[in-house]
Amino acid sequence: MRRIIECVPNFSEGRNRETIEAIAGAIEKSGGVRILDIDPGEATNRTVVTFVGEPESVVEAAFCGVKRASELIDMRHHHGAHPRSGATDVLPLIPVSGITLEECAELARKLAERIWTELGIPCYCYEAAAFRPERKNLAVCRAGEYEALPEKMADPDKAPDFGPGRFTEKAATSGAVNVGARDFLIAVNFNLNTTSVRRANAVAFDVREKGRPKREGNPVTGKIVKDRDGNPVMIPGTLKGCKAIGWYIDEYGIAQVSMNITDINATSLHKAFDEVCRAAEARGMRVTGTEIVGLIPRRSLIDAGKYFLEKQQRSTGISEEEIIKIAVKSMGLDDLKPFNPKEKVIEYLMEDEKETALREKLIRLSCRDFAAETASESPAPGGGSVSAYMGALGTALGTMVANLSAHKRGWDDRWKEFSGHAEQGQAVMRELLSLVDEDTAAFNGISSACSMPKSSEAEIRERELAIEKATRYAAEVPLKTMKAAAKAFPLLKTMALEGNPNSISDAGTGALAVRSAILGAGLNVRINAAGLKDREEAEKMVSEAAALEKSAVREEEEILCIVSGKLNQ
To answer: Which residues belong to any copy of the Formiminotransferase N-terminal subdomain domain (predicted)?
Structure first.
């Protein structure tokens, strides 16, 4: 597995486009990273940059960004709505794949040390990278913000983890960087139909994990209750793993609850949305929409879309695009400006567009273009790809019947049942669609192997091994298609027996398509297996394909019998 980490530095400049572009340019020019998002905020005077890459490249890019920001941003003149302590305010490293949070924490500590040693910029280490337990909380590291640094740097208990022990000229211009390691964090603002920061703060205190100080008598103006150590006694909020404050945004002319969801496993985005809505309504306000700052994991939107569909007693067995659309509309993610998932979802942005387009060349075509490509003089796509596509279409028909049944008037008590069937159908359909292009890629692999040089005995042996390997793969792919398509029969049979009677013919047509897909893919297993030198392996695959074909014919006959019986009633 490729080792990938994400870095989301927050720079204390959100208004000067030239400065923002210069910092982003320094990150990009370091090499080996891909910038996914640049999100400036005028009111906060802060820009969030998101980039990904292999650990070493990301660390180098982060260092270059910090260096350039310290050259261009003078913290003595900085003002903005968001808390901040440095030109680069926060610099978190986030594990994406092939690397642990603990490994990211160690990288963060070394990066902080380098920033101090080479640039003279003091650094605090927070969250997983913290050297002290209390500094796991970013708020502790950033307490008092930039203005408190002269006092903090002279205090051994509050001084940076890496720094000079005094407020230097460099610290005066650059401030202090908070370097950390954390899991995915969702930065989100909930828009309120008010201009009152005090009321927005009240909602934020209602929901954030830290809550609000307990007071004697009047809950707003009463004396704060303190424990025996002199610390305020807190009344916890309702959302775990959430930090929140209220603020006013001149750009939009509204107050917001600004929240960081630091533990998306404990508190989902949709749970936070619902809870802020509840707390706002209890105080006479409404949440009018939601603003995502930076990027968001795909699963957060998928989970939200399914959550709101289930609240409507609607099937969740629809396309990913439609599920995300429900999430966007339900939470008002497009309230202040358009929300494009392709630009905001981290997994979508990490996809290499050229590689994806090459990998999904066929399924991105229109029906007309797919047919034309099949009919051309090129030998691929051929029967294997067409079989996978037939299987996907047959499965899609069964999924459609499930969704129609889930939404049928008078069947409201069964929506969950049919929704489950539709989700199963979507999974099979996705698998078969991926096999459309995989089959053509397998055929092209044989062509590439056959074109290898054969001018020496060594080259001949290498070519023969490559042809054998490619031929085996070309037989394995249609066998995978057969197995995947066979998964659609239980869905189609259930829809024929119990689905919306007005769509009974669709279930039957789906069975015909799936049977044809399996038989067609079986032909491709046999023709490719015939070219294998490993006859034992070839006979094993042919035998497995024959059993799948026999079963498919039987399944189709059974479903058509059910359909015919109902049509003749």
So the answer is: 3-183
472-482 pLDDT per residue, tens? 999 999 999 99
Record the pTM.
0.77
Is residue 82 annotated as part of the catalytic site, yes or no?
yes
Q: 515: which DSSP letter?
A: H
CA distance 370 to 296: 34
Tokens of 356: 């994806």
Q: How far apart are CA 272 and CA 67, in angstroms?
A: 36
Task: Look at residue 1 and tell me whether its pLDDT is greater than 90.
Answer: no
* Lookup result for tokens 């050229």: 354
CA proximity to 316, closest of 329, 305, 300: 305
The vertex-320 CA angle with 315 and 326, nearest 5°, equals 60
Coarse DSSP helix, strand, coil percentages of the chain, rounded to the nearest 5 percent: 55, 15, 30
Out of 78, 82, 270, 421, the active site residue is 82
Chain centroid offset of residue 262 CA: 16
146 burial (CB, 10 Å; 0-12 / 13-18 / 19+) is buried
Tokens for 286? 């409404």
Contact 381, 373 (CB under 8 A): yes
**Residue type at 140 in one-letter notation:** V
Confidence of residue 545 (pLDDT cuts 50, 70, 90): very high
- Residue appearing with tokens 């489950």: 420
Q: Is 270 a catalytic residue?
A: no
Catalytic site residue from 39, 303, 437, 439: 439
β-pairing, 177-181 with 88-97?
parallel
Residue ranges of the alpha helices (H) in 120-246?
A: 138-141, 149-153, 169-174, 197-207
- Closest by CA to 296, choosing from 352, 356, 349, 239, is 349
Q: How would you classify the pairing of strands 33-41 and 123-127?
A: unpaired
